[in-house]
Design brief:
3 helices, about 140 residues, alpha+beta, single chain, about 20% helix
């Protein structure tokens, strides 16, 4: 899971049916994107089967996440692999969601991938520094 909060914080969430985690205890997780140098983060179980990872604000990690094709997470002696499809679309859509709901309320929510007719799309920078777009004004082909 990927979550962006109203305060522009963001988290990754992982769940597995066979996990038996202890809520409230943290443990280290090493996240690697396309085989690059690992990012060391902390996992916080919020239930027996779900762990959330608070992602650092304004970090290089977001850029790796947006551009990577594969992510691995190594935790408690286990390696998990994830295919990252369309994360370059996902994060701007989440940023648009936060901006739209904060501005118009949840009752007026719509498609967050594209701006509403007659409105420009909010920039990632408008939502929070950790989600800023560090690319040039012209979007890349991957976007």
């Amino acid at each position: 899971m990927v979550r962006v909060g109203a305060d522009a914080s963001w988290q990754l969430g992982f769940a597995h049916e066979s996990w038996r985690l202890t809520p409230g205890t943290t443990f280290p997780i090493a996240l690697t994107f396309d085989g690059s140098t690992p990012f060391n983060v902390k996992g916080l179980p919020i239930s027996g089967r779900l762990v959330m990872v608070e992602m650092p604000d304004d970090s290089a990690l977001i850029n790796h996440f947006r551009r990577a094709k594969v992510m691995t997470a190594y935790a408690q002696g286990q390696l998990f692999q994830f295919s990252l499809d369309n994360t370059s679309i996902l994060l701007p859509a989440l940023a648009n969601c936060v901006t739209t709901v904060k501005r118009d309320g949840i009752a007026n929510a719509g498609n967050f991938v594209l701006p509403r007719s007659g409105q420009s799309a909010p920039t990632i920078a408008a939502v929070g520094p950790s989600l800023r777009n560090d690319t040039a004004a012209q979007p890349s082909a991957e976007l």
